[in-house]
Design a protein that fits this description.
16 strands; two-stranded antiparallel ribbon; 14-stranded antiparallel beta sheet; 1 helix; mainly beta
Length: 189
């Protein structure tokens, strides 16, 4: 009778697991979890080997319903941090920092992710001379993408000084006189 009870208990424990697959990390935590619906959930660690001249890297962050969410850190295979990216809905959102393989800050980017669940999004249009003043609200079609939005700063990695600063407003480059240029307007010199 006990043998039958133990067998039933064993099969019931195996049958009601929460994850389809996962790995156990060095500290005993559960990583790279895939739920029963096949979606990535929770903390993840991704290892990419060198390939065709491209340097390999390791990424760590958090997945929510198969989308990257929150802060993701990228390291070289030697352990040097080369990027710190913020995600929302699986798209870049907010401040991103990129570093050289020697540890120097290379650039800071700002992005805005659009919610893929909404077909349209309302965007505030600010006065170019006074960014605190909202002059209009515009409805734009949402394609579930990330847009360059905010200040981008490029650094000299050896000296740590600012080489160039660019400001983007909803994927359009703002010139010194306040005009906005789309990617089609920018031509190579």
């Amino acid at each position: 009778m006990r043998l039958i009870l133990v067998c039933c208990l064993f099969f019931s424990i195996n049958g009601f697991g929460q994850w389809k697959s996962y790995i156990i990390g060095a500290k005993g935590d559960t990583l790279n979890r895939v739920d029963m619906k096949g979606k990535k959930q929770g903390p993840w660690s991704i290892h990419v080997e060198e390939l065709r001249g491209e340097r390999g890297y390791e990424e760590e962050g958090y997945f929510e319903n198969d989308n990257k969410e929150g802060i993701w850190k990228k390291y070289s295979l030697q352990g040097v941090k080369i990027a710190e990216e913020n995600y929302r809905w699986g798209k870049l959102n907010g401040k991103q920092q990129y570093f050289t393989y020697f540890g120097g800050l290379e650039r800071i980017e700002n992005w805005r992710a659009l919610d893929p669940e909404k077909l349209f999004d309302t965007v505030a249009v600010y006065d170019l001379r006074d960014p605190s003043k909202e002059i209009d609200r515009v409805i734009v079609k949402n394609e579930g993408i990330s847009l360059k939005h905010g200040k981008w700063i490029f650094y000299d990695p050896r000296e740590g000084t600012i080489e160039e600063t660019q400001t983007y407003v909803m994927n359009k480059l703002q010139t010194d006189d306040g005009d906005l240029l789309s990617d089609d307007d920018i031509r190579p010199i």
